[in-house]
Amino acid sequence: MSPTGIEAVFLANREKLVRFLAARGAGDAAEDLVQDLWVKLSGRMDGPVANPLAYLYRAADMLMIDRYRSRRQAERREQDWAEGQGGPEPPAVERALVARQTAERIAATLTALGERPATVFRRARVEGVSQKRIAEELGISISTVESDLRLAAHAIAALKEQIG
Amino acid sequence: MSQDRHSAFLAVDAEALDWALRMADPAQADWDAFTDWLEADPSHVERYDRMAATLLDAEEALTEHPDVMEPPRSVEPVADHRRGALRWIAGAVAAALVGAIGLQAWDDRSQPYAVETAAGETRVLALPDGSIITLAGASRVALDRADPRRAVLERGEALFRVKHDDRHPFAVQAGGVALVDLGTVFDVRMGQRQTRVAVAEGAVMVDPNGVGLRLDAGQAVLVEDGRLIRAAVAPGDVGGWGDGRLAFDGAPLSEVAEDLSRFLRQPVSVAPAIAARPFRGVIDLQAVRRDPALLGPLMEVRMRRDAVGWTLEPRG
């Protein structure tokens, strides 16, 4: 991978990425995070990237989502302690069981919406197939794919609110 | 559980959810507009994080438990080169970064990553459990650092040399086909129309939660339109491409062309008139890579070269 392509894109868009990360909740750390991100990413790109700028943005976005998830997990653990439910981590078997039950709840929620929205969600979000392709497969319009996807996402968000 | 978790789902949450859907889709992500939306109200970022994390949690739960939501019978051999590369790659990179800057431990979380090859390239992946995956050209496999006993072949072909463990069988998903090893070397190939599983050593169980078809060495199955068709193979030919040989026993030229496109650097297509013609023989990949025109006499076709690649045409 020549250093020119993606590096040029990075340098030209550095300020925009900093602004994005600041808005994305990184605050004053945005500058440093952009630098970290670049150091990590530049060493890893061993193939051509179709849209380097979108790739950089999404990596930055995912970084912040990961940080949110880690924070949330830590908070949950603290809350468990405060509520007197703290203790040693549940054994792996139990964790696996809970994870499975959650997956089953999610699947049931999706299936309850009907076969098509469930399929659209699975194809788009679990298997990463493009909306255009899903529309072709199911013989429906892209706007139907979009609305099915939103329907499914809303149902999942509602389930999340419900089970906490 | 505290009461505030049941707070009403506000319109702004729905908006955040829409952004979370859009930003995960390379075809729809508008990062400038998204930055503007985030800056418009300081509460937006937290709502977005919550929605994006909820979706990822759900997706990971379904990925880790593929059987809870059985795909409909129509088995889809996917060959969409545009499929969510951005999301997978970005996800894996971001997870690695989190580790690097010392946040939470991720050991009990799924840590997906994907490996892909360009046409003409093969790649050998050694997994932490001792299993080895040889990835053919123009192929892509999704793996999980948190669970090395699971692989999803997203396109192309791969040869699995699996370290068998009775208590934790190795599971492979390819399109709508699921299989687990029973002690094995096996090849999985996703074509345009069908997915093929062929066993060189040991055995695999195809569709373990459904029909539970057992394949032993020298057996293969073709999955097409949700139907399973048994076939026989020479065990020595299974995954022969790893040693530079491509063996065919009566496969239609369309399929041969598809395979060649993976192993050569230029795509190979076939004229419709001879697409269904069967081919028997062994192709030496190294020689053909040097000179694709060698295929002409071998396959009794005329090789036409154009700007993008090669076309197999009828002779005369």
What does this structure look like?
- The complex is a heterodimer of chains A (164) and B (316).
- Chain A has 164 residues and is mainly alpha-helical.
- Chain A contains seven helices and no strands.
- Chain A has helices at residues 4-26, 30-42, 52-82, 92-112, 115-126, 131-138, 142-163.
- In chain A, helix 4 (92-112) packs across helix 7.
- The longest helix of chain A has 31 residues, at 52-82.
- The model of chain A has no long low-confidence stretch (mean pLDDT 83).
- Chain B has helices at residues 11-23, 31-40, 44-64, 85-100, 253-263, 285-290, 295-299, and strands at 112-116, 123-126, 132-135, 140-144, 150-161, 171-174, 177-190, 194-206, 213-216, 219-224, 227-232, 245-252, 268-270, 278-284, 302-305, 310-313.
- In chain B, helix 1 packs across helix 3.
- Chain B is built from seven helices and 16 strands.
- In chain B, strands 1, 2, 3, 4, 5, 6, 7, 8, 9, 10 and 11 form an eleven-stranded mixed β-sheet that branches. In chain B, strands 13-16-15 form a three-stranded mixed β-sheet. A two-stranded antiparallel ribbon of chain B has the order 12-14.
- Chain B has three domains: 3-64, no CATH class; 85-236, Jelly Rolls, CATH 2.60.120.1440; 244-313, Phage tail protein beta-alpha-beta fold.
- By secondary structure, chain B is of the alpha+beta class.
- Mean pLDDT of chain B is 79; it is low at 1-7 and 71-109.
- At the A-B interface, helix 1, helix 2, helix 3, helix 4 and helix 5 of A face helix 1, helix 2, helix 3 and helix 4 of B.
